[in-house]
Specification:
Layout: H1 7-30, H2 37-50, E1 54-55, E2 67-71, E3 74-76, E4 91-100, E5 103-112, H3 118-135, H4 144-157, E6 161-162, E7 168-170, E8 177-181, E9 198-201, E10 204-206, E11 212-214, E12 221-223, E13 229-231, E14 234-238, E15 243-245
Antiparallel strand pairs: 1-4, 2-4, 3-12, 4-5, 6-10, 7-8, 7-9, 9-14, 10-13, 11-12, 14-15
Helix pairs in contact: 1-2, 3-4
Length: 256
């Protein structure tokens, strides 16, 4: 069931989003060659706790960390580890969620570690742009799949693989709520978008094939061809005439 959030609930989600964004900012500042993904996880945990919130991911269905730290060919759900040391030329997708007074914020960003190839820079930039293309359609009266179609046609038009096995989602008192929000598909389908709907929109775009597989730990999801993957996610709320992003950090340029 899709829930419409009240003004009170949206206010709480804005604060959850602000805390999520704050944790992202602290992690972003720390990313460099030589740091472990375990250290990044601790930075995010401390940032979230310091704001009076709790990490959404920690112990969620048994997940053992506060962030997902997905390096290079890891698409999503990379588990932080003391053994995973970032090196020059890597990219890392950081996914963070925070719970504030029972409401969730959820966002992901892909960062460069040192100097990366132009091909990979473009992948990351275009994944971010795919998000923008999607939220142009996030307004009352449109159908849910209008968002999906905009993301998919943009990314596939550039020759990228759009992950199909995982989707965006509704969000609120639960991290994952109805509806699922695929990053591909035909326009004009699914529920009507209405003011007060809260969604996590999250293109996951691969340099090669769209196909992915889950490793033996049950979480880490990688591209089947070993090509790099990028991830860009924000929590949004549908407004009177468009949408508002709830998870951008101070100074971050995101245009709706």
């Amino acid at each position: 069931m899709i829930t419409i959030k009240s003004d009170r609930e949206i206010a709480l989600m804005k604060e959850a989003g602000r805390i999520t964004a704050y944790a992202h900012e602290q992690v972003r500042k720390a990313i460099r060659p030589g740091i472990s993904t375990y250290e990044l996880d601790k930075i995010a945990y401390n940032a979230i706790i310091s704001c009076g919130a709790t990490p959404s991911f920690l112990n969620y269905q048994g997940y053992p960390a506060s962030i997902c730290a997905s390096v290079n060919e890891v698409v999503i759900h990379g588990i932080p580890s003391k053994k995973k040391i970032l090196k020059n030329g890597d990219i890392i997708s950081i996914d963070i969620g925070a719970i504030y007074h029972g409401y969730h914020g959820d966002a992901a960003r892909t960062h460069f570690v040192g100097e990366v190839s132009e091909e990979v820079k473009t992948l990351v930039s275009m994944t971010k742009q795919a998000f923008y293309e999607g939220i142009k359609m996030a307004k009352p009266g449109n159908r849910l799949s209008d968002i999906s179609h905009a993301i998919g046609t943009f990314a596939e038009g550039l020759g990228y693989g759009v992950v199909r096995d995982f989707t965006g989602h509704g969000i609120g008192q639960h991290m994952h709520e109805d509806p699922a929000v695929p990053n591909y598909g035909e326009a004009g389908h699914g529920p009507l978008l209405k003011k007060g709907m809260c969604l996590a929109i999250e293109p996951m775009i691969n340099l090669g094939t769209y196909r992915v597989k889950i490793l033996s730990d049950g979480w880490t999801t990688v591209t089947t061809d070993g090509a790099p993957s990028a991830h860009f996610e924000n929590t949004i709320v549908i407004t009177d005439d468009g949408c508002e992003i709830l998870t951008k950090y101070e100074g971050e340029k995101i245009d709706v």
